[in-house]
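To whoever picks this up:

The parser on our side crashed when reading a file containing two proteins. I've narrowed it down to the boundary between the first structure block and the second sequence. Both blocks are reproduced below exactly, byte for byte. First block:
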Amino acid sequence: MSSSNLVPLSILFFFTLLLQSAIGVDPLYHICSSSFNYSSGSTYDKNLNTLFNQLGNKVPHTGFRQSSVGHTQETAHGLALCRGDVSTADCKSCVSTAIAEIKKCCPNDKAAVIWYDACLLRYSNVNFLGTIDSENKVYLYNVQNVSGIESFNGKTRDFLSRLTDKAYRSPKLFATDEMSLNKIDKLYGLVQCTRDLSDLRCKKCLDDAINELPNCCDSKRGGRVIGGSCNFRYELYPFVISKK
């Protein structure tokens, strides 16, 4: 996709990446909106900073926070979500880092989203809370293809669909599991939605993301689709943080 096809906050970005099991300090990706801007010291600027303070202070305790600050067109709407298996300390660190980074990456933009391995941060002057974000989407995949595993794509799709059925029925809209593919190989997976979504909207978001598998991760040893409302990841090695 050439850059001429990209529009603010509506992007489908393809790139290869050898996925790491550890939670990284660098963002996976970010998207800024250049269509709507605000001035430093303006009402929106103040509302956005208040929003960031609320998200940074409240998210680590529950793993999710949504809020709206302000009135009329100057309202800042936003959410932050931590991966369901990260610790409170890692959650707090990730959200704090995301807030600092988005300020640098998208200065004076009224809408933006940034993804880390451990968290997601999104804000906008338009109230998106409770709706599925079908525009902001990023593919990541292992550059290596699978070998010696029959019907890998179909098994991966079925596996992620079963995880979706678990996730949308859970309070955290989050699920992980593992599955044997043969006597040697195991498949590990994770799915998650932002908790502003209803359970059925979570299911639809994940179902739509899983439908991207042929475009994203055909026969790849690992892959993920990350969006503004939900994400999935699968690997042939364990990457979920175990709770001890």
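<<boundary where parser fails>>
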Amino acid sequence: MTHAISQPALTLDGADFPVRRIFCIGRNYADHAAEMGNEVDREKPFFFTKSAHALTAPGDVPYPPGTEDLHHEVELVLAIGTELDDASPEQAAAAIVGRAVGLDMTRRDLQGEAKDKRRPWDAAKDFDHSAIIAPLSSAAAGPGIRLSVNGAVRQDGALEQMIFSEAEIVAFLSSLYTLMPGDLIMTGTPAGVGAVTRGDSLHAEIDGLPVLDARIV
């Protein structure tokens, strides 16, 4: 017996927005790179991917198996609405049709093990419910980006701290892939990442965008 798999989707200003792929930019805030002991490449963005089926809505989010060190990373998420191939920064900026608050959940212990053994990060980053994303909005975003756990602020930054801008990120990815409507890009996280456990309540926000509230269960 086969089972149909539904198309992952968000809403954009209340309308359905089917999700195709999820790109994630790493080390795009110098303070976060420093807290993780990493150097920043200012020549071109560093990125990895999540499966579209890693997407999950805010609300109750299961604690994943295989880890004892689940971390939160609050991020600005961009939604692409136009086909792009080797775009200029101006074309890239015009292709962004929505923005949202997102959480890149990370099995940090598995990531550390992968780094030590120089292996891919897939198990650490791309797993069920690892891309928690609020509804998309066509409104402008910024400047503040924040996350609190059980009412205590953990991450408090500004989008202007991003090393690579929205347009630079999108243009770079379009030089490697043909970007299509439905592609999402998570743009990196400021400093202050940390562990969460079952029962923790997370509140994430970016000025001007719908907030994200989730509880780890």
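After patching the parser it read the second block fine. The radius of gyration is 16 Å. Residues 73 and 104 are 5 Å apart (CA to CA).
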